[in-house]
UniProtKB/TrEMBL annotation:
Designated name of the protein: 4Fe-4S ferredoxin-type domain-containing protein
Keyword Ubl conjugation: no
Keyword set includes Cytoplasm: no
Single GO MF descriptor: metal ion binding
Source organism phylogeny: Bacteria, Bacillati, Actinomycetota, Actinomycetes, Micromonosporales
Keywords: 4Fe-4S, Iron, Iron-sulfur, Metal-binding, Repeat
Highest taxon of source: Bacteria
Residue ranges occupied by any 4Fe-4S ferredoxin-type domain in the UniProt entry: 1-32, 55-78
Length: 348
């Protein structure tokens, strides 16, 4: 079969350095649930010795979080995230598309529906048409679930113009078996929003940068630091104790984590969680598709948050924000989960 990029697949030398970084391998201890095990399956699919639609193979395509924690530790530079997208692009087609994913993909295709829902939820008011930028990406999930994030981002930098036009960048589609469509959505968004696109979602930042080019995209913390928008140091005021949850695709795909700490450190005392860099189990649609594994993955993180005695947890991605807020609430912790934009704008 011609499912995978042969050059990327060929890079893996089966060294196993990626195994300790993989959350699903940590859950199962099973080689098949590790990056190396999945790459072995991919090679079998490619040479025809393994069926793409074998239930055990489909199980591995589904169980993988797509967190890309296996990428930064890989000495051969295997772009595992791309291989997973290519895998699902063939395996999650037609009746094999998980049924829970279908309505989400359909909803995020409809710009009008997103616009109406977002306006009802009072996200930041869109800027003028044909603005040269910088544009603030209102997104799809975020504009509906967390409309205050775009308002806070504008409070941090009033020059950011909330972008009109397509709501979804296509990351959701690219990660869920619609790679070509996801890339086309990103290109359409890039055409409608010329110049720099600033996003408050780590997942969108990584997807857009992959399609439009790194120089077109800035995640909010990068933007804050680059533009010198850090507030002046205040003395004599109590600073909240804040834990940070990295975004997997932002950290593992774009290598962005230091600017988040620079921004948070300007207004708060950072308490690093041992698992700050590890996936929270939200992983796009993962918490919907695999709720049991998702709950097992976030459980130790919630215990760390409880032990750390923090006032806030800061996230840089709407999926993480929803996942952590739900988990913290269920655990009965008196800890707020906020977006970086809300912390920086003092809106929490
Ligand atoms: S670390 Fe990289 S080269 Fe080694 S097994 Fe994992 S994916 Fe393959
Ligand atoms: S993307 Fe995450 S869950 Fe999937 S193989 Fe890599 S480290 Fe494991």
């Amino acid at each position: 079969m011609n499912v995978f990029d042969p050059e990327v697949l060929g890079r893996c030398m089966s060294c196993g350095f990626c195994l300790p970084a993989c959350p699903t391998y940590a859950l199962t201890g099973d080689e098949a649930s590790s990056p190396r095990g999945r790459i072995t399956l991919m090679r079998g699919i490619e040479d025809g010795t393994v069926s793409l639609f074998d239930p055990a193979v489909q199980e591995q395509a589904s169980m993988c979080l797509g967190c890309r924690a296996c990428e930064p530790v890989c000495p051969a530079g295997v772009s595992y995230g791309l291989l997973l997208e290519q895998w699902r692009d063939t395996a999650w087609r037609g009746r094999d598309t998980p049924w829970l994913v279908r309505p989400l993909l359909a909803l995020t295709r409809h710009d009008l529906v997103l616009r109406v829902l977002g306006r009802l939820r009072r996200h930041a008011r869109p800027g003028p048409r044909r603005h040269p930028g910088p544009h603030l990406l209102l997104g799809c999930v975020e504009r509906v679930l967390f409309p205050g994030v775009s308002r806070a981002a504008r409070a941090v930098d009033p020059d950011l113009q909330p972008g009109r036009g397509p709501g979804c960048c296509g990351a959701l589609h690219a990660h869920n078996g619609r790679l070509g469509e996801g890339e086309a959505m990103a290109r359409a968004l890039g055409d409608r929003l010329p110049g720099t696109i600033v996003t408050t979602s780590g997942g969108c930042a990584a997807h857009l940068a992959g399609v439009l080019g790194r120089d077109r995209v800035a995640e909010l913390s990068e933007w804050i630091v680059r533009r010198g928008l850090l507030p002046p140091a205040r003395t004599g005021q109590a600073r909240p104790r804040v834990a940070i949850q990295d975004s997997c695709h932002l950290r593992n795909g774009l290598g962005v984590s230091a600017t988040i700490r620079t921004a948070v450190g300007a207004v708060a005392e950072i308490v690093e969680l041992p698992s700050a860099r590890d996936c929270c189990g939200a992983a796009g649609t993962y918490s919907l598709l695999r709720p049991r594994e998702s709950a097992r993955i976030i459980a130790p993180k919630v215990r760390e948050i409880a032990d750390a005695g923090v006032d806030l947890v800061v996230t840089v991605n709407p999926g993480c924000q929803r996942q952590l807020r739900t988990a913290v609430r269920r655990a009965g912790l008196e800890v707020e989960v906020v977006h970086l934009a809300e912390l920086m704008a003092g809106q929490r």
